[in-house]
Structures are given as C-alpha cells and as structure tokens.
Amino acid sequence: MKKINLGDQNSILNDFIREIRDVNIQSDSLRFRRNIERIGEVFAYEISKKMEYENKDITTPLGISTENLIKEKPILATILRAGLPLHQGLLNYFDRSENAFISAYREHKKGGDFEVKVEYMSSPDLDNKTVILCDPMLASGSSMILALEALLTNGTPKHVHIVAVIASSEGINYINENIPMKDCTLWLGAEDQKITSQSYIVPGLGDAGDLSFGKKL
C-alpha cells in the first residue's frame, strides 16, 4: 500500500486543517463542514493526477480543441455519517461519479470496549473500477477495513484510494497489515501519533460526526 500525506507539503490545506482542529472555530458547524468539504476538493484534485487519461476532440465555436481527459470517473464511497462533508468535496470535482454509502457504528460493551459493525451498504458494481473510499478520521482503522470488505462484495476494483483527513499512526499500520487488496493508496491530510483506549486520535479534533451534525445519543 502506498501512503501519500499531503500535510507533508506546504499548501492551503494546512489552513483548512488548522481550522477544523481549532476548538474556538469548531463551534461553527457550518464552517467545520465547509472546511471538511474543501479538504475533500483538495484530495480530489490530487487524486485526479494519478488517474488514467485519454485525448478527446472538443468542438468549440471556432474549431476543434484536443484535450487530455480522465478516461473514467471513480466511484465515490463514504462511511455514514461523518464522511458526508468529505464525500461532498470529492463529489464537487468528480461530479459525474457513481456513489456508494456504508453505515458503520460502534456497539459499546461493558468496561468501555466496543465493536465496529457494518449495518447497511448501497453500492454500484465495482468490478475493474477505481474507488475512492473516504472517512474524516482514521483512528484504529477497523471501520475502514470493514467498510472496504463490505464494498468488495460488489466487485473487485482495479484500484482503491482511501482518504482520511487525520489518521493515527496505529490506524495506518492496521490498514497496511489488513488491507484485503494490493492496489491501494492511502491519502492523508495529517498523521497524529497517539490514540486513546476509546479510539480517539490525539491531538486529533474530536468527533467529526458530532462537529458536523450535532451530538447523538
């Protein structure tokens, strides 16, 4: 698995990540969602550079222009509910893409332990397609692997791009050790070293789903 950390480069992405981390800005849920969406747009632009292209003739009012265009649109997949703003950012650029959605949740047990379960999935055929699977936070990595395994029941993609805004080092290692396919690229906005026993990334930013859509019971 190849890992690409856009946070290692100096770009406007650094500003967006600073704002979603900042506790004084997080209270504005509209701005939080929009920043996550803008981060998705940055990822879409960078991922587009890795895709296959072909020449096409375009008719203009004054003649013919030959343009180098993406051969196929990727299938965009996300984990509900936290992944929706990030997914929207990707969809803003890959606006003719098909979409897939996976519902995953934590089932808490006594003693503070929990188990991640996939409850629902909606997806087109993935055979020989390029798939972009996104979730803002890659903590333990188990949700991402379960979501990918669920997607693979609908076909075998030729390549999967996994997108996370912030990832823990432990989660990255888990993905690398348990990824069920070889042709995969992991895209990050930032890598944090620590993770709590409840699988929250430190310093991280908190619960991306709650910050986007409000606290849940």
Characterization of the model:
With 217 residues, the protein is α/β, with parallel strands linked by helices. The protein has a single domain, classed as 3-Layer(aba) Sandwich (Rossmann fold), CATH 3.40.50.2020. It is 30% helix and 35% strand. The protein has helices at residues 13-21, 29-48, 84-93, 142-151, 169-178, 208-213, and strands at residues 2-5, 53-60, 63-70, 75-80, 99-108, 114-122, 130-134, 137-138, 159-168, 184-192, 194-195, 201-202. Helix 1 (13-21) packs antiparallel against helix 2 (29-48) and helix 2 (29-48) packs across helix 3.
Question: What's this entry about, in short?
Answer:
This protein is an alpha/beta fold. Helices cover 30% and strands 35% of the residues. Helix 5 (169-178) links the parallel strand 9 and strand 10.
